[in-house]
């Protein structure tokens, strides 16, 4: 279906409805691929179409509407995952919805299992990211303290911490946890 976004009518409700009907399913699948959470997918999809509705008059000048829509979707999904990792209320909401979606509720609720998995993931980290992660999480040192103790720059410390968190998250995903929940767990334990 071709949607004419060049005319004055491009900002009207029927054109927007056509845009929604054309993109809703594809956007939903794309966001779910990123978040692995039906709850987050619904939240991001709604937010995306609200943004598009607010900017509907500006859509006439967008040359690559596919790229534009999917870039916004990606940025919203990643932004929500990052916020979920830092916001305890959002994390609790995500956890609640993830648990509803998952048939692994008992496993998700067993902190011991999660802690054991994270311990195994930490053991598999390369030496430097592991050392920095442990200083941060077990010794409760902040970035400046770790930099002073190791002689490394703040940016290097941040990069090693990010690598450690990403590797732990990937380990959890490989062991059956959904991406969004794995991101939360990787940040929560030893924080």
Automatic annotation (TrEMBL):
Pfam families: Sigma70_r2, Sigma70_r4_2. It comes from the Bacteria. InterPro entries: RNA_pol_sigma-70-like (IPR039425), RNA_pol_sigma-70_dom (IPR014284), RNA_pol_sigma70_bacteroid (IPR014327), RNA_pol_sigma70_r2 (IPR007627), RNA_pol_sigma70_r4_t2 (IPR013249), RNA_pol_sigma_r2 (IPR013325), RNA_pol_sigma_r3/r4-like (IPR013324), WH-like_DNA-bd_sf (IPR036388). Residues 116-166 form the RNA polymerase sigma factor 70 region 4 type domain. GO terms for biological process: DNA-templated transcription initiation. Transmembrane segments: none annotated. Belongs to the sigma-70 factor family. ECF subfamily. This is RNA polymerase sigma-70 factor. It comes from Filimonas effusa.
């Amino acid at each position: 279906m071709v949607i004419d976004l060049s005319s004055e009518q491009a900002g009207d409700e029927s054109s927007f409805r056509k845009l929604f009907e054309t993109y809703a399913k594809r956007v939903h699948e794309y966001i779910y691929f990123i978040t692995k959470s039906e709850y987050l997918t619904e939240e991001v999809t709604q937010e995306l179409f609200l943004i598009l509705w607010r900017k509907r008059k500006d859509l006439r000048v967008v040359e690559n509407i596919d790229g534009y829509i999917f870039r916004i979707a990606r940025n919203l999904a990643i932004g929500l995952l990052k916020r979920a990792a830092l916001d305890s209320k959002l994390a609790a909401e995500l956890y609640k919805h993830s648990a509803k979606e998952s048939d692994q509720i008992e496993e998700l609720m067993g902190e011991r299992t999660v802690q054991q998995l994270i311990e195994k993931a930490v053991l598999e980290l390369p030496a430097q990211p592991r050392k920095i992660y442990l200083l941060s999480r077990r010794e409760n040192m902040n970035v400046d303290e770790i930099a002073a103790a190791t002689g490394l720059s703040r940016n290097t410390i941040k990069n090693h911490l990010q690598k450690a968190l990403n590797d732990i998250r990937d380990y959890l995903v490989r062991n059956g946890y959904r991406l969004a929940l794995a991101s939360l767990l990787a940040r929560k334990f030893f924080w």
